[in-house]
Amino acid sequence: LVMAAAPAFGQAYPNKPITMIVPFAAGGPTDLIARIVGERMGKELGQQFIIENVTGAAGTIAMAKLARSAPDGYTIGIGHVGTNVANAVIYTKLGFDLLGDLEPIARLPANGMLVVSSNNVPAKSLKELVEYLKANPDKVSGGTAGIGSGAHLGALAFNKATGVSYQLVPYRGTGPAMQDLLANQIQVMVDQSANSLPQVQAGKIRAYAVTSAKRSPAMPDIPTAAEAGYPMEVSIWNGLWAPKGTPKDIIDKLNAAAVTALADPAVRKRMDELGLDTPTPEQMKPAAFAAFQKAELAYWKPILEAAGVKAE
Ligand code: MLT
Q1: Which SUPFAM superfamilies does this one have (predicted)?
Q2: 274 C-alpha vs ligand 1 centroid, how far in Å?
């Protein structure tokens, strides 16, 4: 029996809990995905994943904190197309180098967005919602999770597709924004299905369309935006990153745990129910994920620059 050589630095990694930074408030889609995946990864690695919600500036504060953390595998972060692509174009003082200071660990599930309103809005279709917004510009405001957040990208896409824009109210996440939507404090949102679909299914808010190219099996009776007359495609994909310099064997161990977590039938069921599409193990690999992130940066940069979206 050949014993594996004892690692140079004490016990094998991980030998203590792992912190996962979540760039938005508890109760939102990013937080929910982090908790589902983190809990199952923790089981795989035999260490607890501790969620740390670091909010503000649509996730730039969180990612800057991650970039400054020790590259030892004990601090990782979940981010998405807003925090780890759009913000690099939007924020002139990002506080870190998106590609230079962060190391991709694994690509995570993606979800389309739902165009939703409070039940108080007198519209029964996307067309009627657009008419209502046009006729009542001062009566309607909508939630985002800050400039560059997924909900903000969704609002931009909505504006481009319908020619109508609504007053944007920034929250620390679309969890808190949802509370105001339920209370009709705000009236509309373009929000990740992971956050809005349960509320739609409970009859507490109304969905008009989904922004994915085809309908989601989780919500077969919600038309795509194209079917509803206003083609718009936005998908909010998620991923895990570590500080640059985290050893490759640790990155690979975290990647393997994420692949196992997303292959777990109970996790798959939750992802499917929430309208999330899970990438293949090959797509989840660090190198494939890094290439995907770069391609997304090339896609969103001209769009965001043309839209003149800028923030400090
Ligand atoms: C967003 O980008 O809108 C955020 O993901 C919302 C959230 O997770 O709270």
Answers
A1: Periplasmic binding protein-like II
A2: 15
